[in-house]
Amino acid sequence: MAEDARPLPRPRAGRLLAVHPFLAACRRTGTGYTPVWIMRQAGRYLP
User: Does this model's pTM top 0.85?
Assistant: First the structure.
């Protein structure tokens, strides 16, 4: 880790959960676009 690197401020969980497009799609509410979740392990992309 670089010496000048600082941790990013953590957003408030309640606010983040309320507006996150992926979580909104999981709740089947409308989103401006279709979010995509991609998992990657050992150099391979899994569906």
Answer: no
